[in-house]
Structures
1.
Amino acid sequence: MSVHTVLGPVQVPALGFTAMHEHLFMLSVGLYDRWPHLLDREAAVSDVSAKVSNAMSLGIRTIVDMTTPNMGRDVALLSEVARRTGAHIVAATGAHPHEPLPLYLRGVVGDASGGIDPDRHAELFVHDILVGMDGTDIRAGIIKTGSDPIVDESNSRLLQGAARAHLRTGVPISTHTHAGNQVGLQQQDVFAEAGVDLRSVIIGHCGDSSDVGYLKALADRGSVLGMDRFGYTMPGRPAVPIAERVSIVAELCRDGYADRMVLSSDSVSWSDVISANYFAMHLPDWNLDFLPETVLGLLAAAGVNESDLHQMTTVTPSRILCPVTVS
Ligand SMILES: [Zn+2]
């Protein structure tokens, strides 16, 4: 059983402690194709490599980078960080609902599709997974999609594209949601309708909800809850306080849901739109270290036992990252 990382297939036992939703680089899409002199790639790689190495010294072995092509994914940068640090890095295909899509994906004028075309999406995602990303043979290991603030007629086509790519490749789906609007349940409806086994789906940003009933409803349908924003405190945006995030995970563990949660921070290690100063001033805990260094201790103090911690950081990530067999 192996998982596609940016340096090739890795056998499951080697994955270890996995941060399931992070962003190592977020770059302005297309900018550096036109003006490559604007990006000091060596500086960016060495900065992120130092951060990844530090997280590894705290126990992390695998990082799932959820940066989609329309968020500025750059597999050459990711693979260089993997080479320098020894971290396993899984890259994503897919599309973020908030970022612009290539016009091509909106369908060709005169075609009957009349908007975002799920098959065109699926075709690109499948190429990333089976052939390689960005003209390389580096294969994507996860499909990211999303809906925010609700699932509607238009953005449900993104979900359908992800579903079709999953059904053809077996690679898992991981979503962006608006947790306050309980969007995860709507996403599950679209995926289930498309024939996806919901056990292959991570409903993301579940840690942004304090509604345990909602979270259990998602998990009861088989999906994995992405408790993936530990340390997220973006000014001006409401965020569930860390103590509450921890107590909700502890409560779900007590109620037997440890096998349906994964942990992460959704942190951004290097961005061309957020300055290092801003990170230091406003987002002191939003980084790769916070989960291994602080959150695991807080969960243990809240009563989560070793076995449940291992389940959420290692066993469930390995299970869901393994592509399922496709017929
Ligand atoms: Zn994210």
2.
Amino acid sequence: MEQFADFPRRKKDGITFEAVNRLLTQQLYAGIVEVARWGVSPREGKHEPLVSKETWAKIQERLNAKQAVAPVRKDASEDFPLRGFVACACCEQPMSAAWAKGRNKRYAYYSCFTKGCPERRKSIAKDKLEQRFDTLIKSLRPSRSLFDMSRAIWRDLWEARGMKVEQRTKSIAGDLKKIGKQIDLFLDRIVNTDSPTVISAYEARIRDLEHERLLLSEKSRKKHEPQTSFEGSFRTAMNFLANP
Ligand SMILES: [Zn+2]
């Protein structure tokens, strides 16, 4: 936003976090009007929303979410990448790590510090533990055939989903045709009747059908193309699985 000269800013030193927060929490953008000081409770506005209510709600949820639940310490340093990720074999609590001073140099080690654990304070040298972790990760690499098979299964599912969407689009087109025919039918009947009561009943029916037709044609205009290709969607996941 700072690159756009037109973007309104209060300070000369750029866009503040508060400004970004205001943007992300402004419910007017989702089409909702609310003015508490005038007693106007939240309601549907008459203007065109910039984002859907679904999107807006998702943003609020994410903004209000508590911090990520990863067992990472704030001071997690480069020294001990596995701290908090490796569990004690005895009590299954996350292990911690520290530097210890020896006579001549410092030693890096992981250890369980859980109170009451029989293995508490038994240390494992950093290098030893990290090497074993390395070996474990390598053993997780799937075989070529397993990898190819899961890829084939995902592709099948991807194509099946595509077929379903196609079928639904076709069935909407069929429904639209049917409604068109029904409307024509009622119009014919109106022409052939003299009773005002019957005519207005037919007219009401036509109005309903027209509503239905509007809804369906909005649905049929919606794009059902996948947003990315199969390759684009799965490349990262497959690369990761191939070599965790
Ligand atoms: Zn333990």
